[in-house]
Design a protein that fits this description.
Strand order of the largest sheet: 1-2-3
Number of strands: 19
Strand content: 15-25%
Structural class: alpha+beta
Distance between the termini: 74 Å
Oligomer: single chain
Number of helices: 13
Radius of gyration: 31 Å
Helix content: 25-40%
């Protein structure tokens, strides 16, 4: 019989000389014989539920929706979850399919098949409310399936990079004036910035620890543009709380695969006398630069009116943000980035703080594709076509800022 060492999970073998089991990895023997005897008695537990159990009801409805889609379109992509309550059933998820399925009918038929048909019960096939919150599949997830997994060759620009560009532009445009200082800036010591809040009259006058933290949070939002825009965690020293910013970015992803190239460069100089001695006066330093010949990247952004109220992010801040998106690359050129510049800025304005349409539905109105006349790899924005479908959503205004 083979035993497993309870200390390191390696295989233990029986030692005839000592008359006990010894671990082949850690050689642990102390009280091992007693431990192995205990391991001989195992307890196996399992849960079993009937099809009327709420978890099973939800699973059966999800399975029925999947089966209905696959019957009409074998290439359907179905990520469906159901949630059951006393008198309702919620169906949610992301589904992409050429087949149209009546989710409410599928749910009621499944519940009826299980046996919940008594109208005196709160939960019955004909009496419950069925709520459907199903959207199309996320473009990022669809891309991974369409092109073939994570290694698609698509280029990425992180949200951190884009926020850095915005911060740099605001810092140059406003010159760190009061109300437009930047918290995350080059060579900043963040705890020292938080200390400024605690040294201010409006915070130091507060006695309660909880109220002092809230006062410090308000101070930081008021004086630092990037905090009231993107948010920040300010509890690394004196506690100024945590701020959820109203503006968030996704990673920007290229429309087509990109090719990153590395170039060797030579600097006809060295940094120290020691390096010069090693090269006998030749004084050369080798280096590398990376470039991407061309890539068109798409980024999605979100502005929350509710979070803007909490941080004090106002109309002036929003206009400065749009200005930064338009001009941030012109103020930060490099040889590797070449002529990188924003080509389109499409803004969906809602007349309600909670929004008049889901963000993913609005993003779906914009289509970016390579022109048919483009042969080979695209090398210019002119090789692409950007179209915006007619807006079917009331309360939404579409504005092209670039």
């Amino acid at each position: 019989m083979t035993y497993i060492c309870p200390r390191c999970n390696a295989i233990a073998e029986y030692n005839n000389y000592y008359g006990r089991y010894t671990c082949t990895r850690c050689a642990w023997e102390n009280k091992f014989l007693e431990d192995t005897k205990m391991l001989e008695n195992k307890l196996f537990t399992s849960e079993s539920v009937t099809e009327g159990h709420p978890d099973k009801v939800c699973d059966m409805i999800s399975d029925a929706i999947l089966s209905a889609h696959l019957a009409g379109d074998p290439d359907s992509r179905v990520a469906c979850e159901c949630f059951a309550g006393h008198n309702f059933m919620l169906i949610s998820g992301e589904i992409t399919s050429k087949c149209t399925v009546d989710y409410e009918k599928v749910a009621r038929d499944t519940i009826r098949k299980i046996g919940y048909t008594d109208k005196n019960d709160q939960f019955n096939a004909d009496g419950i409310e069925v709520l459907c919150r199903v959207n199309s599949q996320s473009p990022d997830i669809a891309l991974g399936v369409d092109v073939g997994g994570a290694e698609t060759g698509m280029g990425l620009v992180t949200d951190v990079c884009l926020k850095r560009k915005v911060r740099n532009y605001v810092q140059m445009a406003k010159e760190l004036n009061d109300g437009f200082d930047i918290f995350i800036k080059e060579k900043a010591v963040l705890n020292s910035e938080i200390d400024k809040a605690y040294d201010s009259e409006e915070v130091s006058a507060v006695k309660s620890v909880k109220d002092k933290t809230e006062a410090a949070r308000r101070f930081m939002c008021k004086h630092y543009y990037d905090i009231r825009t993107f948010g920040a965690v300010m509890s690394t020293g004196q506690n100024a709380g945590q701020v959820r910013g109203p503006i968030q970015f996704t990673f920007a992803r290229s429309i087509d695969p990109i090719m990153s190239a590395e170039h060797s460069i030579t600097r006809m100089a060295v940094a120290t006398d020691k390096e010069a001695e090693k090269q006998n006066g030749d004084n050369r330093t080798m280096g590398r630069k990376a470039t991407v010949p061309y890539g068109l990247y798409v980024c999605h952004g979100f502005v929350s009116a509710n979070l803007a109220e909490q941080t004090g992010f106002g109309e002036e801040d929003l206009q400065l943000f749009w200005e930064a998106l338009k001009n941030m690359f012109d103020c930060d050129r490099s040889a590797a980035r070449g002529l990188m510049a924003p080509q389109k800025l499409i803004v969906f304005k809602h007349n309600s703080k909670l929004g008049n349409a889901p963000a993913n539905k609005l993003f779906d109105l914009v289509e970016v594709k390579k022109k048919k006349v483009c042969e080979g790899a695209p090398r210019s924005f002119k090789d692409y076509e950007v179209t915006i479908a007619d807006n079917p959503y009331p309360g939404i205004t579409i504005e092209e800022m670039i």
